[in-house]
From TrEMBL:
It is found in: Nucleus. InterPro entries: METTL14-like, MT-A70-like. Its main location: nucleus. This is N(6)-adenosine-methyltransferase non-catalytic subunit METTL14. Belongs to the MT-A70-like family. GO terms for molecular function: mRNA binding. One of its GO terms (cellular component) is nucleus. Keywords: Nucleus.
Length: 273
């Protein structure tokens, strides 16, 4: 048992040294400062008459009270050292003190397809084609209850539908917009502006919205192929709603339970000629 524990400690120490080398710090002791997990020392009591406000301000600036914020998980992506596997989320938390699910992986486009040269070349060709054919972004301010979508006279490959549901008012306190029912959402003629090979993203909330969202997709001629859930892991994250529903005891942290649920759907067409 002691030999196993000793081996695990040696491997952990080796990983920390590799992390220190990756972040560019001189030793393992400085790794906590870079990752933002260093324990704060209690502030020293300063006599009121011993320093002027200017001297105290200068002392704070010299000490560098601004903490470094750990913003991403690029150190734990694929292609890193073998002693630090990119899919070991438990070790990610042990080494950094940060929850890996708080960060989006592969955010760098330059290194995203480094291990797949053919896919990287395909993405490059697609980006060149989009740069030549894409039009500038445009918007149309109108009332969808009275506007005829067919008047757009265009077909879209990707459509995002985010209706102002009643749930938004209940959870976020939004009261300055007119709320829609699912019957109104279903009356939108999305199929008329969708291309033969197209995708639609539909935010449908929770509870009854899951079933009504599927009904909307069927009516529009789309087929549901995947559900994507957004789960918030930190209650203290910026922008997180602290509002509780009536008679609620616990704070919900799963977005799929009370906020939004994303449907990723494809048009029901026969790709083969």
């Amino acid at each position: 048992m002691s030999d196993t524990l000793k081996e695990l400690r040696e491997r952990s120490q080796k990983r920390k040294k590799l992390l220190a080398q990756t972040f560019g710090v001189s030793n393992v002791a400085e790794l906590r400062q870079v990752l933002g997990t260093a324990e704060e020392e209690p502030a020293k009591k300063v006599p009121i008459l011993s320093h002027t406000p200017t001297e105290i301000l200068n002392e704070k600036e010299e000490n560098g009270t601004d903490s470094v914020v750990y913003k991403d998980s690029s150190t734990f992506l694929k292609g890193t050292q073998s002693s630090n596997p990119h899919n070991d989320y438990c070790q990610h938390f042990v080494d950094t003190g940060q929850r890996p699910q708080n960060f989006i992986r592969d955010v760098g486009l330059a290194d995203r397809f480094e291990e797949y040269p053919k896919l990287r070349e395909l993405i490059k060709l697609k980006d060149d084609l989009i740069a030549q054919t894409a039009t500038p972004p445009m918007f149309l301010k109108c009332d969808l209850e009275t506007f005829n979508i067919k008047d757009l006279n265009n077909k879209f490959d990707v459509i995002l539908v985010e209706p102002p549901l009643e749930e938004y008012q209940r959870t976020m306190g939004v009261t300055n917009i007119k709320l829609w029912s699912w019957d109104q959402v279903m009356q939108l003629d999305i199929g008329e502006v969708a291309a033969s090979r197209s995708f639609v993203f539909l935010w449908c909330g929770s509870s009854e919205g899951l079933d009504m969202g599927r009904a909307c997709l069927r009516k529009w001629g789309f087929r549901r192929c995947e559900d994507i859930s957004w789960i918030r892991t930190n209650i203290n994250s910026p922008g997180h709603s602290k509002n509780l529903e009536p008679k609620a005891i616990f704070q919900r942290t799963k977005v799929t339970c009370f906020w939004k649920r994303l449907h990723y759907s494809s048009r029901m067409v026969n790709i083969r000629p």
